[in-house]
Amino acid sequence: MDKRGSAPVLDVVDPQQETDALAMAEHADKLEPGAMLFPAAFFTPTTIEILQFELGRVKFTFPISAAMFKSCQKSLVPFCPPRLTVQCLQPIYWARVPNETLRTTSLKLSDIRGWSVLCDDPVRIMAVYVPEKDESFDILEIIEKPIFLDFHRQTLNLYCKLA
């Protein structure tokens, strides 16, 4: 256990290789000097609310255990033995932001008209306009959602037919 009382941390001393026994087979990785390793395993839940896992059948390993996840229908608290921590990975939606903070000027016009905010040096991005949704999306977001890819495919087919 480290100073905070959380999961154990393996500190890499040898800058060339770190070797460990993984599933009874030698597994070697090249790591940077001073890299901190946190032991982790990734699972796909067997059902929506429960994950069952077994951490080995050899001496000095953890026993079979299970964890309960938060559910939409019930407010279950994740449960796991105190020596283990379970974290749920959730998909997130991201959007690009500029590398530097934009300079803006704000001015209160009046109590009736409200505020005016102007960007001194706007950042240009390449966006795709979807008329059916009346929205614009960053060009890099197209690869993340199948709906955008379908729209892009249909647009390219339309351009090919016009040419």
TrEMBL record:
GO terms for cellular component: calcium channel complex; sarcolemma; sarcoplasmic reticulum membrane; smooth endoplasmic reticulum; Z disc. The lineage of its organism: Eukaryota, Metazoa, Ecdysozoa, Nematoda, Chromadorea. GO terms for molecular function: ryanodine-sensitive calcium-release channel activity. This is Uncharacterized protein. GO terms for biological process: release of sequestered calcium ion into cytosol by sarcoplasmic reticulum; striated muscle contraction. InterPro entries: Ryanodine_IP3_receptor. It comes from the Eukaryota.
